[in-house]
Amino acid sequence: KTFLIWILISVYQSLVCMALLLFFNVSLFVDISGISFLALVFTILVDVAFCINTWKLLIILSQVVTLAITLGSIVLFPGYFDVISVTNYGFWWRTIVLTIVATVPIYIILFINRTISPTAARKLK
Length: 125
Description:
Layout: H1 2-24, H2 29-51, H3 57-76, H4 83-86, H5 89-116, H6 120-124
Helix pairs in contact: 1-2, 1-5, 2-3, 2-5
């Protein structure tokens, strides 16, 4: 059941990402691939952050290192990212909007579900 839920969440997030890219009418393939790549990485980072119950130093470090490597890949792989468009404000607001639309509805639904029908462990707390 848990695996199927995560598969459905991933499919939803990918579909939202591609649909919004079409809605934003991004014309260059380099921009499409750059925005979608960064939005999906940011979405995964947010997913991991929401799933963690107890934050440890290693978890924080792994999140920060992942973010640094992802942002560093923009400079290291100019063939995949147009450096001029990455410095553009439109690139970043599209990436942030994609990340928010892909993550916020899911976690609102999960929060409502946990509030309405909490697990036995949560009921004991």
